[in-house]
Amino acid sequence: MGTTDGWRCWLCDQPVDPNASVNSDLGPSVDTYFAAKARKGAAAPERLAHRSCNTMKGKHDPEVVWPSHLIVGDPAPIFATVDRLARKGGREAVGRFQTHADANQASEWLLDRLSRLAPSMTFATQITAGGGQFLLALKTL
Fold this sequence. Notes:
Elements: E1 28-31, H1 33-37, E2 47-50, H2 51-57, H3 78-88, E3 91-97, H4 100-117, E4 123-130, E5 133-140
Antiparallel strand pairs: 1-2, 3-5, 4-5
């Protein structure tokens, strides 16, 4: 599991020390969130997480936070958006930005983060200008 996740926590996207004790906050832990959500008989992957991230999440849906260096207006909850797109496909708006450069930077970060959060899915982004702002949308391919 650690090698398929690149030894990164799927929740916080930070490195997991493969040599750390499983009792350490930053030690490796197996998250079974997807197994609990899978339909009966369907295979669901276990994901690598820090013990502290896995414990903090508990039985709640995971939360992926937008980084503080990106100033996002009306930020969409990333995990919930990805979950809906996985079920229905299509596209959803994920945030508004003051400049095209800000929207582009957020697009690059989001696509990079989703490559590890949902590696079995392929996404693209679309930036649309309007009303003096730039809307970033995420879509499935």
